[in-house]
Each structure stands twice: as C-alpha cells, then as structure tokens.
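pls design
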C-alpha cells in the first residue's frame, strides 16, 4: 500500500508552563483560490475527506478566492459551508485584490466574523490575523500586521492567562527564509512571556515545517488550487493534532483517495483483533479528564517512561498518556509501526489508568500517510546559535588589536563575551565592519573578482579563492578612521570583475551573484541605508557590459530589532605568544570557536 507523508501537530495546552497541554485535532485547508466558474472538484474532495475524520475545526489561512470578487465568494462559500466542523478563516492577499476599501467588509459578509479574532478552543487560544499589506495604496505580495491589529492583539493577550497555549495563524509565513511578513519581529515581540507554541500559515503554495531561534515551530501549508513544488507536494491539505508536547503534522495529497479509514471501535479491557495491510495505525480517543491507556499482549508489561507514546523495546506493549482535557478533547495519535503486529492481534489487553479519565470513544484507524513527529518547545527553550564571521578559521593575524565580528541568533538579551586565549574582547570605537549576505559568487570556477569598496577605496576581495553557491554571511572590519574620512561616507560592492575590481563587468560574466542584509556595524549599533532595507535581495551579476555595483550606500538609520544581532569587539593580542590559538564567542550557554594563528 502506498504511504504518503502525513503530519499531525500535537501542541501545548492549558497548563503549558506547569507541564501538560490539552489535545487538539484540526485540519488546515489553504489557498483554495479559483475563478468564479471553476467546479472546485478538488476542494469538494477535500471537504469529504475532512468530514470523515471529524476534526474539531477547519483552519483556512487565506486566499479562499482568487480576486475577492462577489462571484468567486458565491462560488466557493457553498462548498466551504459543507465542512461539518466550524471553519476558522482569515483573508489573504488574493481576497484583497478586490481593494483595500472593500475586502474586509466582503470577508465579514461571507464568513460572518472579523478578519482577525481570538477564539478559545479546547483549552487553546486560537489567534487569527489579517496580514494583508497595502503600500502607497497598492497591494503588496508580502505581508504585515497593521497598527490597529497590533493594538488589539496587545489588549487581547493581556486578558488571557500567560500560560494559555496559543496557536497563531495568518496568511503570510513568519520568520520564513524568504521574509514574507515585513514587521514580523514587532508582532512576535508581543508574545514574549506568552505560550506561543507554533504558527500555521499559507501563501507559499508549498509545505514547510521549521523551528525558529525561539524554538517556535512554524508550519507553512500548501494549496488546494495549485502547487509551486508539484514534484514533491502536489495539491492537498494538512491535518494537525496536538497532545501535550508531541507534534505530528501531516500533508494529505489530493491524489490519495482515502488517507484515513476507521478499522474498529472498542472499549476497555479488550481490543478486537485488527486485520489490515496498512503500515500506519492511528489511535483516536475522545475523552475528558487525564490518565493513561495501556495496551499489552498477554503476560507483557509496558515499561515506565515519559511522553505521550511509550513503547516497549520488543514492540508488544504500548502506553498512551492522555493529558488533562477539561472539556471533551480528541487525541489523534499515530502509533509506532513496530508495535502493531503484536498488539492488535488476538489477546491484546487494554487497561485504563487514572481516576479522572472518562472515555467517550476509542477507535483504531488505518492510514496511507506516514506521520512525522516533532517535539514542541519547553518553557525557556531556544534554538539560538553563534557564528564567528571574522576572523575566518585558520586566518593569520597580527598580534595587535584584532576586531572580532560575530552573528548571534538568540532571544537572550545578554552581552556576548569574546576571548582569544587569555585576552578578553571589549566594545571598540576604533573599528567598524561592513556585513552582508552573498550567494552565487563564482570566484574559483570563473575567475571573477568581487570586491568591497569604502569611500571609493578598495577594501577587500570577497571569497577570492572559492565559489559561494549558497547564502553565506560575510564581515569585513575596517578602521573607523577610514569610514569617517569623508563628509558623506559610503561603500559599494562590485561583481564579476576579472581585473582591479572597479566594477567593469565583462560580457562573458554569467555570475548569478546576489547580496542582502547589508549593514554597517559600528560599536554596538547596526546602520542601514534607507534606500536599501534589510531583507531586500539585490542581483549583482546579470551578463551586462555595464559595471554591476550596489547603489552607493550611506548607512544612517539604526537597524530595527531582528531575531539576529551582530557583535563587534576588539581583542588586544599584543601580549599573547605567536602560533596557534583559539578565538571564542559566548552568550549564556551558546558558544562558537575558531582556530587562528598569531604571527610572530
């Protein structure tokens, strides 16, 4: 039987900071956008499948229509209303094609609620936002959350318990590599000290699940209309289920005619024998209270352990821990494949433990989907990292003041500590640094020379002896006296020049060189050029005969807070012995080291 990758999300619940999170099971149906005359065949199939598995609700993170027209709403809404579970929707940029003056009112008319809201569901707070962005009256492809919503969100969060688990959803992805929400850091700062567990978004017409530096999981759900990654994703929808700190999340391809099928309903203490060719079984339990279900073949005891699912090493015992659910909750739990042959055969015994556990129904399902498991964040957990950008590993350094530039990705606001051997770094006013990301440099394979100029004076080559074929950070320190030598200091990057790096681009240049996140780091401050905002990607090589240079940069504006920050400190290596040494940068429990060589 064909096995598809099915992901289901288990999330943190009402007593999150105390430890337990109630179960939540729902479907995500995104980007259904079709013309007004489309029969919506795929969406009708999705509705039928979703109704079969009976989720608690259906989340629709935007782009239900293609242009937001009345005709398209009239076409799609009768199909959406066929979902048995409540539909929690929000607008996307395609709804806003109808215009800033009408799209929200039209959304309210057809969905019967505001485009942004907060709803309590099964011990969770489900927060939905309208991330549509208009700039100078024109609809933008990227998103942002406007000031009115931010004020509403701040007041809303103040009214709910700090430990309440939060599911955040909007159309545009958050902290996505391609930067889809312009003011995402301003938005996410409102959740500091709150139990934001993960986000659900759409917009990209492809699937991604990733964890950010604050250990928050983000799920980007593909489309029912068309796929931007058809070879791997296709079109379809997502199922999500949360039980305590376990997360399973599943993409269902529309080509799968029956991704989930009920095998049997049973009651304690005996589970009927199960006959199936499916490799994946799913336990579905509706219950109140809290407790455990113990499945065991005769004469075998399940070992003690922590987590929602604890299996014996031999695969013939299974313990399912059900966290507290004050209202009737649904736990939809994929079971370890190794346990199914021994457990769900003749003689499998089921025991119920926990005085408060009340079973409403217990079922076994078979699935053509393969369930991927993710572990959800715990209070205080982060996924931060430190990268030393300059000096580079193995670089030979003079034994004087050495500028050190590091990139710190962390929610920790502490001060980074720089050390070279026994010498400690200090914040410096003597140095500044040009810092940026670059991709597609072909210095080695094509002999192209890419350079940094400061005040029209050559500073350095960029990766002169290698190719850079993925996004990479670069940092080039310079004495601040060079930067302050002219009334209007500036710098520029040049691309693909084979001789002096002045910017004359040879016709044969086929270098696909790009740069982004260009800043000037001086002291503890990052400065950006208002004409070149951070996160804007600039192509620098395009096969043209004209010089390929970045617009002359005059960084003057402080960089708004980001999830990454840059550190510039100087280490005085005058008293250190020549030879090999180790440079380290630390922040809390994060650390990075590189080997360097001190010249005699």
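designed seq:
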């Amino acid at each position: 039987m064909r096995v598809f990758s099915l992901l289901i999300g288990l999330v943190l619940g009402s007593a999150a900071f105390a430890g337990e999170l109630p179960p939540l099971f729902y479907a995500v149906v995104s980007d259904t956008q079709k013309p007004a005359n489309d029969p919506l065949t795929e969406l009708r199939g999705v509705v039928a499948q979703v109704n079969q598995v009976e989720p608690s609700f259906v989340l629709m993170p935007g782009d239900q229509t293609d242009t937001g027209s009345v005709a398209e709403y009239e076409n799609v809404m009768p199909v959406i209303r066929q979902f048995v579970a409540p539909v929690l929707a929000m607008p996307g940029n395609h709804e806003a094609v109808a215009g800033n003056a009408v799209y929200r009112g039209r959304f309210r008319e057809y969905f019967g609620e505001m485009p942004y809201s907060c709803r309590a569901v099964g011990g969770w707070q489900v927060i939905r936002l309208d991330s549509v962005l208009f700039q100078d009256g024109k609809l933008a492809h990227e998103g942002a959350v406007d000031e009115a919503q931010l004020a509403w969100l701040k007041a809303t969060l103040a009214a709910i318990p700090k430990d309440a688990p939060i599911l955040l959803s909007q159309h545009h992805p958050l902290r996505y590599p391609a930067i889809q929400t312009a003011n995402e850091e301003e938005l996410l700062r409102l959740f500091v000290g709150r139990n934001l567990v993960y986000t659900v978004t759409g917009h990209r017409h492809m699937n991604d699940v990733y964890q950010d530096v604050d250990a928050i999981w983000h799920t980007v759900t593909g489309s029912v209309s068309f796929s931007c990654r058809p070879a791997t994703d296709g079109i379809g929808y997502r199922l999500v289920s949360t039980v305590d700190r376990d997360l399973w999340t599943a993409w269902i391809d529309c080509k799968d005619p029956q991704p989930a099928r009920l095998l049997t309903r049973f009651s304690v203490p005996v589970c009927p024998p199960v006959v199936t060719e499916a490799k994946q079984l799913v336990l579905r339990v509706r219950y109140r209270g809290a407790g455990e279900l113990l499945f065991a073949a005769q004469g075998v005891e399940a070992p003690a352990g922590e987590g929602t699912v604890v299996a014996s090493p031999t695969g013939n015992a299974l313990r399912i821990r059900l966290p507290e659910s004050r209202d009737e909750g649904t736990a939809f739990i994929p079971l370890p494949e190794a346990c199914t042959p021994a457990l769900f055969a003749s003689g499998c015994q089921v025991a119920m433990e926990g005085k408060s556990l009340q079973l409403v129904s217990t079922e076994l399902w078979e699935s053509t989907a393969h369930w991927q498991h993710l572990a959800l964040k715990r209070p205080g957990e982060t996924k931060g990292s430190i990268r030393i950008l300059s000096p580079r590993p193995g670089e030979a350094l003079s034994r004087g003041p050495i500028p050190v530039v590091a990139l710190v990705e962390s929610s920790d606001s502490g001060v980074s500590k720089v050390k070279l051997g026994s010498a400690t770094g200090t914040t410096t006013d003597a140095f500044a640094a040009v810092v940026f990301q670059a991709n597609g440099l072909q210095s080695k394979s094509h002999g192209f020379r890419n350079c940094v100029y400061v005040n029209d004076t050559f500073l350095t080559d960029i990766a002169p002896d290698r190719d850079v074929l993925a996004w990479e950070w670069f940092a080039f320190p310079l004495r601040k006296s060079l930067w302050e030598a002219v009334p209007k200091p500036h710098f520029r990057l040049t691309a693909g020049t084979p001789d002096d790096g002045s910017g004359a681009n040879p016709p044969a240049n086929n270098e696909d060189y790009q740069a982004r996140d260009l800043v000037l780091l001086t002291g503890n401050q990052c400065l950006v050029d208002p004409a070149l905002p951070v996160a804007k990607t600039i192509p620098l090589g395009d096969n043209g005969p004209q010089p390929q240079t970045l617009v002359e940069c005059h960084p003057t504006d402080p960089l708004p807070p980001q999830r990454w920050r840059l550190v510039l400190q100087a280490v005085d290596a005058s008293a250190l012995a020549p030879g090999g040494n180790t440079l380290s940068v630390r922040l809390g429990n994060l650390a990075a080291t590189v080997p360097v060589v001190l010249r005699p």
